[in-house]
Specification:
The complex is a heterodimer. Chain A is α+β, with helices and mostly antiparallel strands. Chain A has four helices and three strands. The mean pLDDT of chain A is about 90. In chain B, helix 2 packs parallel to helix 4. The model of chain B has no long low-confidence stretch (mean pLDDT about 90). Classes of the chains: A alpha+beta, B mainly alpha.
Chain lengths: ~90, ~150
């Protein structure tokens, strides 16, 4: 159910293509506010789908996000289910 | 969820990845050359005994770390070359060829072959790594454009 939200699906899809992405880059790509992105990342992190790491760079605290193995599996399952629905196959999205 | 909603979800995912392809890392040519030079240095280090071997290897590892830090700072993203996906074949082929080059350097060291031979092997490794880096990036960009999950 967690990946039903379009923004969460987009976050997972973006993180699936990289090793790590910075919070500001995610926000820029998704065109959402800091607070909205923080809420989505917190939900994905609580579910164990996303790992968050804070690091000091150039005197500023930055947050880096990466997709966990559980997150990768959930995304794969969700995308397969979506494709099955699109193909009118009897499968339900996660 | 009906098929229209499912298609919309897939489309939104693809759109996000295409947006990333459009605004994501655009590695300049020097970045590919720097990576290839590091790989060449690692290969060349095997052609010498200590301390030169150790010094070259440490310098190459420091350069790798610098490239990773620079990628993160410049693009807000880091993509490991060893990621799964369409690029993995290029990575594995490059690793096999570079390992073969390292074996050749070790052979050259053991048999006391000339410096020209060792530099030639490292030069070959540089060319292999440069070609692999350029090809890897092209395949990665295409993967993002296609929006494959």
């Amino acid at each position: 159910m967690l990946l039903h939200a379009p923004a969460r699906l987009q976050i997972a899809a973006l993180l699936a293509k990289v090793t790590e992405m910075e919070f500001a880059k995610l926000r820029e790509l998704l065109k959402v506010s800091d607070s909205v992105l923080s809420k989505h990342l917190a939900a994905l992190s609580d579910a164990g789908y996303v790992a968050l790491r804070k690091a000091a760079e150039d005197g500023r605290q930055r947050t880096w996000a990466s997709l966990t193995r559980a997150g990768t599996r959930a995304l794969d399952r969700h995308v397969a289910a979506l494709r099955a629905i699109v193909a009118h196959l009897p499968a339900a999205a996660e | 969820m009906d098929p229209i909603e499912a298609q919309a979800a897939l489309d939104s995912m693809t759109a996000a990845q295409r947006e990333f392809a459009a605004s994501g890392p655009k590695y300049p040519f020097w970045r590919h050359v720097a990576f290839a030079a590091v790989m060449g240095a690692i290969v060349l280090s095997q052609g010498f005994g200590p301390p030169l071997q150790i010094v070259l290897f440490i310098l190459a590892m420091a350069a790798v770390a610098w490239l990773v830090v620079d990628d993160r700072r410049r693009y807000g993203v880091f993509v490991s070359g060893y990621r799964k996906g369409r690029t993995l074949g290029v990575t594995l082929l490059m690793v096999v060829l570079l390992l073969a080059a390292m074996g050749a350097e070790i052979y050259a060291r053991i048999n006391d072959l000339s410096l020209a031979v060792k530099l030639g092997i490292a030069g070959g490794a540089f060319v292999v790594a440069l070609a692999a880096s350029l090809l890897w990036t092209r395949i990665y960009d295409r993967e993002l454009q296609d929006g494959a999950a």
